[in-house]
Amino acid sequence: MNQPHVQKKNQSQLPDVQVKKSRLLERNRDPFRNIKIAVGISVAVLFTLPIIWMLFVSLKPNGFSTTNPVEWFIPPFTFSNYVNLIFDSLILRWLWNSLIVALITTVLTLIITSLAAFAISQMKFRYKNFIFVFFLLGLMIPGEATIIPLYEIVKSLDMIDSYAGLILPMIASPLGVIILKSFFDNVPKEVVESAIIDGCSYFKLFYKIVLPLAKPAMAAIGIFTFIGSWNNFLWPYLSILSETLYTLPVGLPVFNATYSQAYVLPMTANAIASIPVIIAFLIFEKQIVKGISFTGIKG
């Protein structure tokens, strides 16, 4: 008999609860929220303005020059520069080389670093700690210090001016091994021991149990390996002799050097090289942000 009365009482209390929640939200509201939004929009415009300017300049007729910056953003516009560069230059070839080298380097790096980290983390063998310290020491040596011996090794293996010479020296990643080892160390020992008791081999344990748990770490390492390989200039510049094997970081300066007094064609070449990267960033924005935040909170 008292249930309808209790329901009416609860219903009468609902508006009061909602009012209290709204008041709490108002109290906790950031007083600088609008200022932060305005600053964020201003910074975004500041960073995107060079890209917008590059796109507008690339659409100008070849040889166009002006003393007034506003004229870059008004007609005439043409796509003939893109057509000429795509069919009469090696820029698409350089773009393809960068994509192939970055993808293969990323895949091989993930495979090798994950296997090495799993062995150090889960397998028992002598000098395991010494090997891990060896990887830690690898972080203290700058890449430029190893360029000369690396070049001599690649030259002795007859891999200069080849895809193998571009890819294989870049697949070693001490940082990747260290990050993945810390992830593999956090796998519950009970899970690993029960899998081994059930007859699971180390390889099955690796790709069926341990590796799926490390997807965030693998994604972060893959993203930064791809970006590092895509932007790498020094090693491709030293190891590649023929223009057909140039990557974008090497080919673009060579191309721009022939048009040192012009704006339009170098900007068109830069736009062609930047558009795929911009599209990839828009597609994988969440993964890239997660990778950056992951490297800040895991170690």
- CATH topology category name of the largest domain: MetI-like fold
Annotation field: number of helices: 15
Work out the strand percent. under 5%
Oligomer: single chain
Q: Give a quick account of the main beta sheet: strands, pairing sense, barrel closure.
A: none
Silhouette: flat
Alpha-beta content class: mainly alpha
Number of strands: 0
The CATH superfamily label of the largest domain reads MetI-like
Overview of the molecule:
The protein has 299 residues and is mainly α. The chain folds into 2 domains: 3-84, no CATH class; 89-297, MetI-like fold, CATH 1.10.3720.10. 73% of the residues lie in helices and 0% in strands. The chain has 15 helices and no strands. It has helices at 3-28, 33-58, 80-88, 91-122, 128-138, 147-156, 163-167, 174-185, 189-197, 202-213, 215-231, 234-239, 248-257, 264-283, 285-297. Helix 4 packs antiparallel against helix 11 (215-231), helix 9 packs antiparallel against helix 10 and helix 11 (215-231) packs across helix 15. The longest helix is centred in the middle third of the chain and has 32 residues, at 91-122. The radius of gyration is 28 Å and the shape is flat. The protein starts with a helix and ends with a helix.
Summarize the entry for a quick read.
The protein is an all-alpha fold and 299 residues long.
Question: Which descriptors would you attach to this protein?
Answer:
mainly alpha, cell membrane, sugar transport, 299 residues, MetI-like, MetI-like fold
